[in-house]
Fold this protein.
Amino acid sequence: MTFRRARRRHYAMTAPTFFAVEYAINPWMDMSASVDTHSALNQWETLRQTYKELGHTVETIEPVAGLPDMVYAANGGLLVGGKAVVAKFAYPQRDGESAAYAEWMTRHGYQPVETRHTNEGQGDLLVVGSILLAGHGFRTDRRAHDEIASIVGMPVVSLELVDPRFYHLDTALTVLDDSTVAYYPPAFSDASRAILRDLFPDAIEVADADADVLGLNAVSDGLNVVLPAAATGYADQLRRAGFRPIGVDLSELLKGGGSIKCCTLEVHP
Ligand code: ARG
């Protein structure tokens, strides 16, 4: 079995203080379903504690009233190698988050750069070692990929998403370490599947049942993989591959179409 090693990570998270499902911009959002904000806060706090117990640094970003999706901090931007790209959202309902995330970046010594085209941060932009995987098809504009490649100075591999339930790259693919990923093949176009097979011959391919609970929306430190608790088949696959799966229940936040990774903005060194 491959030896896996954890690396200490730096995360930023925004509490679901103002979380609600007030509009529907992805197929998971059902405005008639009731949301229990108290339980969302408890689940989110459990996730935060899980990261802290694993030894990671977790910073918190001040939530803003009237921005119910701000809890999905991954979408705020991309932070890597001292560079920061701030999100430009596809839907006007989330517009206000850009300023909030840009302000947080500035306060932390970054100079957030805006893109001309839509980009939804780490929802669609995932760092794997020295390359950047970038999703398009639903949210991030394919043309933003080139803008981002030149801002952060990293080669970008564009991947096309084809299933509206997996509208962000981080709903269909987990970065497990600097050279390993897991993904749900049906979420990608044939051409993008071929690219993934080529780049990651050892990838874990996840089944429908796990993808359907947003199991791939997970966060790995190279050894410990924090994933939605309901994704038990995926957890078994991870264990067999030498990783240590840690299930966390974020069912309340799933009502907005997000889970573990969506709630976690990684500050890459
Ligand atoms: N309701 C949010 C939206 O549709 C959920 C975002 C989930 N975030 C993510 N990184 N996939 O925009």
User: Anything to note?
Assistant: Residues 25-26, 29, 69, 72, 74-75, 94, 123, 168, 170-171, 256-258, 262 surround arginine (CB under 6 Å).
